[in-house]
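Blinded run. Sample ID left blank on purpose so nobody reads anything into the name before looking at the predicted structure. Input follows.
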Amino acid sequence: MAATGGTIRLTTAQAITRYLLNQFIEIDGVETRICGGGFGIFGHGNVPCLGEALYPHRAEMPLYRGQNEQSMGFAAAAYAKYHLRRRFMFCTASAGPGTANLLTASALAHANRLPMLMLCGDTFLTRLPDPVLQQLEHFGNPTLGVNDAFKAVTRFWDRITHPAQVIQSLPAALATMLDPADCGPAFLGLPQDVQGWAYDYPEEFFARRVHRIRRQSPDMAEIAEAAEVLRSAARPMIIAGGGVQYAQAVPELTAFAEAHGIPVVETIAGRANLLASHPLNIGPIGVTGSDCANTIAEAADVVLAVGTRLQDFTTGSWTAFARDARFIGLNVGRHDAMKHLSLPVVGCAKRALPLLGAALEDYRAPEGWTAQARDERAKWDAYVAQNVSHGNRPASYAQAIGVVNALCDPRDRVVTAAGGLPAEVTANWRTLDIGTVDVEFGFSCMGYEIAGGWGARIAQAEVEPERDTIVFVGDGSYLLMNSDIYSSVLTDKKLIVLVLDNGGFAVINKLQNNTGQPSFNNLIADCPTVPAPFAVDFESHARAMGAEAVTVANPAELGDAFTRAKAADRTTVIVMQVDAYEGWTTEGHAWWEVGTPEVSDSESVRAKHAEIEATRARQRQGV
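Blinded prediction complete.
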């Protein structure tokens, strides 16, 4: 690797590694390497060349050995989410099934607009040894392979067919991952021969560069128009999404709401934008929301949607609002700002909110409206307090959430995903500090919980190692993907994992029953192909992976076990059975559109179909 005449001869893999090592970002006045390292499983498609390139830099760019490529991607997504998209991890996988395993994780990162770089093996560019191990042959198109599947689930995709191409492709991939509007996963397919081919790269390409996240200022005409609509509002409301945190606009959102007395509701991704105790925090909105937020949403005449993509769980499939309510979409992404004919304000929330506030001048929402919102929140708080309490009734998700909420540190990070827990955490968790809740519901992906907890803990250890990462996971998701308990033990990245066992896929069983159907193939007890169900020993399983583990019988024992887990220095798994039918949060749910049979022999199915269809009259039709 000798340098001559302003160039340096490197392989493609070495060039990629060197480039990433020299890209920095300014965070709170400190320059930090953008790429925090990587997650990798080596195989024949990446170990000879990319492995060789990474080895000399293993201290500056740590490579975490994964157990499953999909879970590596989940961990990378959680890492980026913790760092508010200002840092990312790469994932490297071998050719064929190793790379294919990343598809689900890439889709998750795409849906959640999270940066993740995938460096994946590919078939030989020369095709001399074709067909090769794990190659999918398409008889009419020899260029088509597994890696092409990633085009649907990435924001940037390229296949490197010559070493010089990385000079253009790597900066373009990085620009995508750092773009506030187009942020998402980037994929580089690396043919096994091209990885090792050498090229005389200009030394300037590897110069140290410091990047900053672009803050787009809004068009002042859009600000003026939005201010005019808001000034006319008798019942304004703010929906605060995850984009508020990515824009680091929590202070601006809080100041704006306080200055104008406007109630704020939170999306699932926007949980922990405001503390639970803030008087203008009227709770989570939507299908997994709260009675207080949904009551206010039904009455609001102007809705300012900040940093949200208005997913159906937020909008109640567009039944959560008055049909004549007017929407203002404040978003850095044009695509999101214009949804449902919203009046768009395209720009960074950190810049746009103060400008919009100045344009509103001394406007304040009517005091009666704000007082009504506070009263609704007080009713909901009383319901949650009762819901999380425990006594002579079956153990539930809500009770477990309440126990942990009461005992955790305000800066501990909570992670969950998919199944019934996102709804229960969203509804029952009382935010103790800003940005401490990660409920993955953009892709609603089972298996994210423990893997995402590991990635979040890696990021957390870089900033606040004294705090804990707490994972809520159901038995179904645990059985789908649990190997990163082992990863956390191997890498000394402590987790506290609560396994809440309800005997199967209980939330989908609940949906099945709620659409008039009998329980079938969701709870283990209702699977016709299971002649003799038995209980999984989750405690022993977790111990086999090196974790501390304990099974508790009730929420009181859970509190004691959680306190011990907080004091422990290694990953602890706490197992508790919860009831599959009793103890669900029954209040706070907006309507959600699901497909139901128009024709059925079942009277109960027909009745539920009619009931669900009757609600459609409230659904906004995009206007």
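Unblinding after everyone has recorded impressions. The first helix runs from residue 12 to 21.
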